[in-house]
Design goal:
It is built from ten helices and 46 strands. It has an eight-stranded parallel barrel with strand order 21-22-23-24-25-26-27-28.
Length: 730
């Protein structure tokens, strides 16, 4: 039986303390005006940019995906009882993009952060009154483009009214540390006694006279259930009137043993993700963030990099529950400006404030196992880069000394060794697209621990080989896990005989109507691409055999790929007009051999297995019908199979859904009479209910995301529908 023995507790009894603080949601209905125009009702969290249609002349340009930004204002009221005025009252904004000014009853009460990704608090002492209070928030997101990707605009994360009665736990002061009392690599003790975990909670308690005192609790958990990607077990307790959720786990890292979690080496099979939620834009609700995290987990990832900014706390909550290891990425650039209006312009003045907010908020999450303090900084070869990295590392350690610090380095023609000083300030060194330097760097710097902070999707097999071979390379984060808005055209495939050739970042590439990045393993509509199934096969011993087919070169045009793309490969067997001509089928499997059948006839048998990076390829003449791949065990028995069928005429639209909380995700597929998806019979699909957003995987479809209907792409489209009525009128 699991027991918890209390060794020391804060003086405040939990039953008494629970009534001393109250957090009231101010999400829900607000009135909103864009650029001084007509007032309308919106629901916060809200992103006004995603409501616009991408336009070629938008000042946000390709970085932002051609969406509208500008200036907006939000208004609503909130009520206070007379006895509330004796409490500590604060408005809490989890995220406003950006440069917010908060007015209470007509007077300026506080300002938001320049960063926009960090939250802020507005004290109400002397500003609020009993009864109805007028709240106005002015948002200025007109410094454009402001970022290298889509940011969104407005009050895009939650708003809270906090009412606290002394004594209370000072917000952001909570620290949780857990230490396993088993120093051995195997779980259990040589003397046969049960393992233990020592849990320490610490914080600052605010007293009635305004003074502060340290609060402390420590207890032992006998035979603890450890938090890990496979078993993300969470405990709960009360501390100073706060409900605290935590996980018990131990992290160690070294060049000799790699990344060790709970005494066992773990290879990070991770993905980078941006903060947007596709057709929902930057709007962040718990359901949206859980959906994103679940997509990654279901695709076989065990880790995520929050590139390149702090995500919502709801996303970290989801990672805690689902078991995703998080590299908490904080800044893209630092001292040199990358795009006009970006955070680099104020970095020197504001990084300590923002870094403190991030670490204090996120250090209580067991999923967070690493801090990242920069990405491809432009001053990387200068002495100031190393100085800043050391300063940020040391500052983090004053707030949390339990996690390693990393940073993503890159090389654009400079001398690589010039970055050694900056790398020396890191516990783990991040490599962006630099896997070829791995072995040489290990020879000259044998104690360096490496993580591939960004990798090309097409390099999946080569990256995997290096990670499983070298313990000092602890894992990878592919760019990216999910398609995202902005950085328009990155990862695209195109037809060079009728489209402009070039990479998304080149000046001559205007990119419109592309308004997003197609380099994800999963598209905006939630469909896993074949590369996702291949990547999972590399890392997951239990992955099922998967069959995909490369689009024939010349079938629709002369195919060209870009740096972040893979060859267009599909989960169908429908190539009308290509009969009798060669196609290539790819089979991903954990079985040692694969057999391929076309219309019941054996095409051939190929070796797969580790030596072939769990992939077998077959070249065959296209013939409509049924293509089947069979995974074959070492003894010749059939383990599993995957079948693709040529689609007939479209007969129906098939709907399915996934529900979570207040929302459901509705998926539409154009199918023939047998239920086979028709990949090239796209049609307009109307969705029913309280439709919040729609999309397909087509990043050139510029119909606003708020449209109730959507044209399918490759036979599929998706809608997000709210299930419960919105309340909390202003």
């Amino acid at each position: 039986m699991r027991t918890i023995s209390l060794m020391f507790a804060a003086a405040l009894a939990a039953s008494q303390a629970a009534a001393l603080s109250q957090r009231v949601s101010l999400d829900g209905a607000w009135r909103f005006s864009l650029e001084g125009g007509e007032w309308r009702e919106v629901h916060v969290p809200h992103d006004w940019s995603i409501e616009s249609a991408p336009a070629a002349d938008a000042p946000t340009s390709r970085e932002w995906g051609f969406y509208k930004a500008g200036k907006g204002e939000y208004r609503r009221t909130f009520d206070l009882a007379p006895d509330d005025l004796a409490k500590n009252l604060e408005l809490v904004f989890d995220g406003v993009f950006r440069n917010a000014e908060v007015y209470v009853n007509g007077a300026l009460a506080g300002k938001g952060t320049r960063y926009g990704y960090t939250g802020f608090r507005v004290p109400l002492a002397g500003k609020a009154k009993a009864g109805a209070n007028e709240l106005a928030v002015k948002v200025d997101n007109s410094a454009l483009p402001g970022s290298r990707w889509y940011m969104g605009s407005g009050i895009y994360r939650s708003v809270w009214l906090e009412k606290r009665t002394c004594p209370y736990l000072e917000p952001g002061s909570l620290k949780i540390t857990t230490q396993l009392r088993n120093e051995f690599s195997s779980w259990g003790r040589p003397d046969g006694s049960d393992p233990q975990a020592h849990v320490v909670l610490a914080g600052v308690k605010v007293l009635a006279d305004g003074s502060r005192e340290n609060a402390y609790a420590a207890f032992t958990v006998e035979n603890p259930r450890l938090w890990s990607p496979e078993t993300p077990y969470l405990y709960e307790t009360e501390f100073c009137g706060e409900k605290v959720s935590y996980g018990i786990r131990e992290v160690k890292w070294s060049a000799a043993n790699g990344f060790v979690l709970n005494g066992k080496p773990v290879e990070l099979h991770g993905a980078c993700v941006h903060h947007d939620n596709g057709p929902l834009g930057a709007a962040s609700e718990p359901e949206f963030e859980y959906r994103k995290a679940k997509q990654l987990k279901d695709a076989g990832f065990n880790a995520v990099r929050t590139s390149h900014n702090p995500v919502s706390e709801s996303f970290l909550d989801a990672c805690d529950k689902l078991g995703l290891l998080v590299m908490d990425d904080m800044f893209d650039g630092r001292e040199r400006v990358k795009t006009k209006g970006d955070y680099c312009e104020v970095f020197k003045d504001e990084w300590r404030r923002d870094l403190e907010w991030i670490v204090r908020r996120d250090r209580v999450h067991p999923s967070v196992v690493m801090w990242s303090v920069g990405n491809e900084v432009l001053e990387r070869s200068e002495p100031s880069a190393a100085e800043t990295t050391r300063a940020m590392r040391d500052f983090i350690r004053t707030l949390d000394a339990t996690r390693p610090v990393t940073q993503a380095l890159c090389l654009w023609g400079e001398k690589w060794e010039d970055q050694d000083a900056m790398a020396a300030a890191l516990d783990i060194v991040g490599y962006n697209y630099l896997e070829n330097l791995t072995e040489g760097d290990h020879k000259r710097l044998p104690n360096r621990i490496i993580v591939y902070t960004e990798t090309y999707p097409r390099d999946a097999a080569n990256v995997w080989r290096r990670i499983v071979k070298h313990p000092y390379v602890i894992g990878e984060f592919v760019w990216t896990g999910i398609d995202y808005l902005g950085e328009s055209g990155i990862g695209r495939n195109f037809y060079s005989d009728r489209e402009t050739c070039g990479e998304h970042w080149q000046p001559h590439m205007k990119q419109y109507p592309w308004h997003g990045a197609y380099c994800g393993d999963i598209d905006l509509a939630g469909t896993r691409k074949p590369i996702s199934h291949y990547r999972e096969t590399l890392w997951n011993e239990s992955a099922k055999t998967y069959l995909a087919v490369r689009e024939p070169d010349g079938w629709k045009g002369k195919i060209a790929t870009s740096m972040w793309s893979v060859w267009p490969t599909h989960d169908h067997w429908t190539f009308a007009g290509w009969e009798g001509r060669e196609v290539t089928a790819e089979v991903y499997t954990r079985q040692p051999k694969v057999r391929l059948y076309l219309n019941g006839k054996l095409v051939g048998e190929r070796e797969a297995g580790e030596a072939n990076a769990y992939k077998a390829e077959f070249r065959l003449a296209y013939e409509p019908g049924e293509l089947k791949a069979v995974g074959v065990a070492a003894d010749g028995s059939v383990v599993d199979e995957c079948v693709l069928r040529t689609a007939g005429e479209p007969a129906d639209v098939r709907f399915s859904e996934w529900r979570f909380g207040r929302y459901k995700w509705v998926f539409a597929e154009v199918v023939d009479a047998r239920g086979t998806v028709c990949p090239y019979a796209d049609r307009e699909v109307a969705f029913e209910g309280d439709v919040v957003a729609t999309c397909s995987g087509d990043l050139t479809d510029c119909v606003p995301a708020t449209s109730r209907s959507r044209r399918t792409w490759l036979g599929r489209a998706m809608a997000v529908v709210r299930l419960t009525p919105r309340t909390d009128a202003p």
